[in-house]
Amino acid sequence: MDRTTKITQFIEERCLVEFGTDVTPQDDLFKVGVLDSFGYVQLMAFLEQEFALQIDHEDMLTNVLVSLESIDGYVAAKLAR
Questions:
Q1: Rounded to an integer, what distance in angstroms lies between the CA atom of residue 50 and that of residue 6?
Q2: pTM of this structure
Q3: pLDDT one digit per residue (tens) for the chain, 81 residues
Q4: What span is annotated as the signal peptide, if there is one (predicted)?
């Protein structure tokens, strides 16, 4: 399973939404009510564990990832380093 699919499945299962039906990969997940602050922290923990990333608190707070596209791009950039 590829990176984007893993992230998509996590959000869909945890937040009970379906990309393409309920929301798009470009939607602001906070504004459409999919994510709240607790869900965001859970998502960051998942990304760290699943992809063996180190996400520091400053990065998490200053670069708030609001869409599936931005989350996936962030993970891709971190993995490329």
A1: 9
A2: 0.91
A3: 999 999 999 999 999 999 999 999 999 999 999 999 999 999 999 999 999 999 988 877 888 899 999 999 999 999 998
A4: none
